[in-house]
Amino acid sequence: MFFSKFSAFGLDLSDLSIKIALLKEAGGHLELVSFGRQEIPENVIERGVIKKEDELIALIKRAVDEVQGQKIKTQHCIVSLPETESYIRMVQLPKIKNEEIPEAIKWELEANIPIALDDIYFDWQVIDKTSVSENQLNILVGALPKALVDPYLSVIKKAGLKPLAFEIESVATVQALIKDGTSQEAIMIIDLGAKKTTLVIFAQNSIWLTTGLSVSSAELIYDIAKFLKIDQKKAKNLKFKVGLDQEEEQGKVYQAMEPRLVELVNEINKYIDYYQASKIAKPGSRQNISKILLCGGGANMKGLSAFLSARLKVQVSVGNPWVNIFTSSSDELPEIAFGDSLSFTTALGLALRGISESKK
Ligand SMILES: Nc1ncnc2c1ncn2[C@@H]1O[C@H](COP(=O)(O)OP(=O)(O)OP(=O)(O)O)[C@@H](O)[C@H]1O
Ligand SMILES: [Mg+2]
């Protein structure tokens, strides 16, 4: 824009919510200047597919207009989509010349994803520090189907915004949770959203694996409703209020959720084993998953970290989406409650990307 300094906010779109976060740099540190959350009614977006375009446009406009904090003046944004079909893989290639990389990646994509190259957007990044040997290149490749992105691009433009980039959700989440984007240990991140759960493995300076898990908050609420023979609304209240506290409600809420959480534990274990056994874990660095960070609204559930720690025998804790925003403890805490900020992890990661884009 003409006189205001260039800025871009994070726009995290999910099936059931729109989340916004805008960071600003002031005096050498970052500040959260605007944030907001707008619920999306059922049936507007179904499993990532836009069903009611006009309604979604109106909701996005409202979300931008009604943020808390400073009014948003920029139209620029970094967007994440409610994707389940994103492709993100670490590709290992023999050391080739830089100019040969794009062609090699195209081959790799054609061999590994069920969609034609013309029908996807893709991006890649050489992960240099992780080379297993001198003769190998590790390249992180991300791809999104055009059929998914294009309708969102159109809706976002019609809402009066200018998307600078689309970011895969898990990439944004990692940007928020991993301090300075590097970790000597392998870390697993689990994003517990409303409709889906995503698992990410991060080591050194890159994502190595991402996958969707079948267990979600919605299903846990369903289990509580069924077990206690109550409606969804009451069940949701109990999930929030009681969580996994066995002392309350005669342990019934716990009992209702336990089978599905055990299923979640089994799924997580499968990926821990897979990562630790597979060639993608690198020699010369610690290969075991040393800790698990939880994020997303579902991470707020009482007793969840302890439940998972005990069963997975790995330290599980709630992630801190402010690690790359507040560098000293004296930095001012924003008005957003910490619990709410777990829901904003992806949006904050997008906002951080907004900061780096503005410096380009
Ligand atoms: N205190 C709490 N206890 C238990 N569950 C909670 C609590 N707070 C939020 N949740 C759960 O978090 C979910 C919302 O999380 P989040 O805001 O991360 O979802 P989302 O990003 O909109 O969805 P998705 O990422 O699946 O598209 C709700 O479904 C709710 O059940
Ligand atoms: Mg989410």
Automatic annotation (TrEMBL):
Residues 8-177 form the SHS2 domain. InterPro entries: ATPase_NBD (IPR043129), FtsA/MreB (IPR050696), PilM (IPR005883), SHS2_FtsA (IPR003494). One of its GO terms (biological process) is cell division. SMART domains: FtsA. It holds the Pfam family PilM_2. NCBIfam families: pilM. This is SHS2 domain-containing protein. The lineage of its organism: Bacteria, Candidatus Portnoyibacteriota.
